[in-house]
Every structure is written in C-alpha cells, then in structure tokens.
Amino acid sequence: MASSSISPKNGVSPAEWDARVNLAAAYRLTALFGWDDLVFTHISARVPGPEHHFLINPYGMMFDEITASSLVKIDLDGRKVTESPYDINPAGFTIHSAVHAAREDAHCVMHTHSVNGVAVSAQEAGLLPLSQQSLGVLASLGYHDYEGIALNEAEKPRLVRDLGNNTNLMLRNHGLLTVGATPADAFVAMYFFEVACMIQVRAQAGGGKLTPIGQPILDGIKQQIGLVTRGVSPGALVWPGLLRRLDRRNPGYAD
Fold first, then answer.
1. Which domains are assigned to the chain?
2. Could you tell me whether strands 168-171 and 141-144 are parallel, antiparallel, or unpaired per DSSP bridges?
C-alpha cells in the first residue's frame, strides 16, 4: 500500500481532503457490501476547486485497502497531476471522464459489475417495477448498449446521450452506473439500484407470476421520496451511519 505522502499537512486543501476521505469510504463500503469486482471497477470524484481534477482508485489496490492518501489525482484526460506510485485503469476513466465532462452536477460517478446488476443488465426488459426499491431508480434511469471494453473515445457521446439527466444508467451486459453531487449520494443511489436488481433476480427465480407496480404509482414516486426524506438527499441522511459502520468493521480509510 502507498505511504501516506498526501495529507492536509502537506498542501492538500481541507476541501480536497474531505473529498478524499469520503471517496475512500465509498470504496471500502462497496467492498463491504460485496459489489466490488476485484480491482476492475471505479468510483471517481471531482476535486473541489477551479481545476477539472478528479480522484480515482489506484489500479491494483483492492477496494477494502483504499485510503484517502492513496487515491490518484488526474485530469480529464486521465493524466496524473500529482505524484503517485500507482497507475489508473484507462478503461475505467473513459466512462467516468465522459460523464464528468458532460454533467457539472455529477461530482461523483460510481460504476459496478455486481452479479445482480449484470444479470439484470443482460435481460431485454431491463429493470422491472417489481419492488418499492425499484421505483426511485426507474424514475431516473437510462440504458446504454454494450460496445465492448470501454476504451473507445468514440463511445463517449453515446454514453452521455443515454445517461441524459438521469441519476442511474444501466450498461447493457456490463453493469450499473450512478452519479451524485457527493460520494454519499452516488453510493446510496447505487444501493437502491443494486437492491432493486437483487430483488428482481430473486423474484424471477421463484418461478411464480410476477405482479408489477402500476404506472400511476411510479409517476408519483419522486414526490413521495421527498416527503420520506424531508427534503434531505438520501445520501446525506444515510452517510453518517454508513461511516460509523465502516469505522467498526474496516477503519483506516481516512489515513
């Protein structure tokens, strides 16, 4: 693991350090929830400030090992802007850079290859309105067809088009993607996306006739979510508790 050569004590602004701590926590929580795919997916976050700089995982480090100081700072072209002993996965940032460049509100972009997410992404009908958990996802969901491992710059406009202004994107035959103003928001959006896929796979495996939720209920779900969360983003509501859980089970992410 990289030494803690980056810290608030040697030139990193408090805002950047806070972004690093929360992003490192999101990586470790992804591992804790079992959504990681060895070292092959990514969560990226914009560094606060006028520069278009971003933080991403060091390639080869397991998600449950990542620390605030080990995250790699890069520009929109994926070039390191500060010294790091680690490289990054070029395929990973192809997707993330496209979203960051197109969506000013997408300060954090999270992508997973979870078993349930990939399973549903391979289904022609995609995510179905089978559960309460699915409704918030369906209210802000796009689909992007598989074009191979994400190395082709020409894919970026199509990916951006398919995401649109949505929070959630299902990458066909590939996995799930969420965006948020913070790592907390992107993570909690991914939680509901993943759980909705898990419920769907299990409901289908039961073999019985499924009962979909009607369109009128889906049409009103955004207003209902706002009432339940009292106007606070789900990420802000849940994140302090998730960090306490992480402190109990895998501390050290803030190093």
1. 8-240 (3.40.225.10)
2. parallel
